[in-house]
Amino acid sequence: MLAVLFASFSRVASEIQRICFTKDWVVVISTAEKVKLEKVNSMLMAIDQSSSLILPVLTGRLLDSFPWEIVCGSIIAYNFASWIFEATILLRLYNTTEELKSKESEIKSDDELRGLKDIACNSVNLYFKQTSWMAGFGLTLLYMTVLGFDNLAASYGQRHGMSSEYIGYFRSFGSLLGLLGAVGFQFVASKVGLLWTVMIGLVWQNVFINTSGVAVLLPGSTMDVSGFLSNTTFSSWTQSVVNQIAQPETQDFVTVPYDQVSFSVTLFFIGISLARFGLWLADPAITQIQQETVPEHQRYAVFTVQTGFCEFFSIMKDIIVILLPFTSLFGLLTLGSCAFVFTGFMLNVFYHIKCGVSCHNKKMHMPKEADNEMSELPERQSLVEKTNGKLEE
């Protein structure tokens, strides 16, 4: 219970730090240092993916070779050391960047102060008033999925005889592709712009996510929805859920050699791995679109709501898994995940169409100043007419 409590507080603090640094600070720093925002976002994503490249294989080796107590202690020590290192870097960065210590626009009146209070109270409304909300909300839908390298997919593989080390290889392969996507983001964005980068990334992701969806329909898959419905009553289902929560199953599954793992399961993990390239090509592109279109004084409120939606869909996914903790239904959850990923893609398609489709203009997502000029046109026209009238007199 204490472990869950401490992990929850740690997660909250981590999310606050991540929002501040990766969504707001990077914009200020890139402007102060006169570095392209694409390059900064790409470097941050590359560092994140690099850390995920080696650790999965190392963790898999530790889990297969040492008791859980030793592995747990090692992870705690690593996290504590990395926390000290990260805090030192952030503090030094803050002290050496003057632009981080002051806002671009200062509050000059009570009206502006009331406006900021309204923003704090109506962050969700503010979020949906942004021109880029469809792109951001489409990204949040990608969290409503079991098709990630978390404990759900790992448990699915282990139930089919995959060892932790074998799963770790797939995780590292997926992280490598994610690293390539993060590094390639700045080059793709510089060539075709952010909107087309999002399209390329999400099309790639959907192709291989749907490959995982097809995998659960192939022979060798344990998906059996009709069998579950015919052999399960409401009372037996609720009792199974309660038992799973009260007495979680052991993680000591029987493993088989690599060449004896079902092709369906292997294809499932291949699809997840290959999809990482598209995800980490589109993710920084969508984030940068929001960074460039959301005003500075609204940026933290908007990205807080963005993170809230991400966590909401992630929690909803976890609740559904808790209510349906059956291997025979995991394929159904996989197909549902494919549907949510596709919906997120379609929202970005609609946003792209709304901004305008162009193969030359790389800034189609930016708010058009022409709208403000058009709103002032009647006043200017009236002023010109009055001036002409006086000249004629």
Automatic annotation (TrEMBL):
InterPro entries: Ferroportin-1, MFS_trans_sf. GO terms for molecular function: iron ion transmembrane transporter activity. It comes from the Eukaryota. Pfam families: FPN1 (PF06963). Keywords: Ion transport, Membrane, Transmembrane, Transmembrane helix, Transport. One of its GO terms (cellular component) is membrane. May be involved in iron transport and iron homeostasis. This is Solute carrier family 40 member. It comes from Caenorhabditis japonica. The lineage of its organism: Eukaryota, Metazoa, Ecdysozoa, Nematoda, Chromadorea.
